[in-house]
Amino acid sequence: MNRTCASCGAQNRIPARHLANAGKCGACKAALPPQSEPLDVDVATFDDIVANARVPVLVDFWAAWCGPCRTAAPEVKKAAAALAGRAVVLKVDTESHPEVAQRFGVQGIPNFVVLRNGKVVSQQAGVVPSAQMVKWIDSAAASA
């Protein structure tokens, strides 16, 4: 994954295992905060992050045509900001990557899955507030 430095605009490659970590820009040495936005991912990136993340991963399975998914999107964004440094939030478009959704038995969207060390900790379909997403991650972190 690449993260753009807010100070100098340089692209910094961040390995999946360090997405939740703070770091510094390789060019100007300015602080790079932990990932605080949901990441739209393809299959390869999804697999890399799930396999290597050192923190829980919250996955939002969604599609552009889905009204409830559009309703959930701001809540997912709030959760990603609240969970910066404690979790990684991914978005998987079920229209573009149905094979990932099939792995988790997703039959209705939005559908949220929490993974820890590559294993499902919890899964729930339907729109939920960001506070509930944070609780799922807190529970996953506590069970580790």
This entry's quaternary arrangement is single chain
Separate helix tally: 4
Q: Can you list the strand order of the major beta sheet?
A: 5-7-6-8-9
Radius of gyration from CA coordinates? 15 Å
- Anisotropy-based shape: globular
Straight-line N-to-C gap = 25 Å
Secondary-structure element string? EEEEEHEHEHEEH
The helicity comes to 25-40%
Write down the overall mean pLDDT.
Answer: 96
Total strand segments:
9
Largest sheet: 5 strands, mixed
Which structural class best describes the helix and strand composition? alpha/beta
Beta fraction of the residues?
A: 25-35%
Uncertain residue segments: none
Question: What tags apply to this protein structure?
Answer:
144 residues; alpha/beta; five-stranded mixed beta sheet; 31% helix
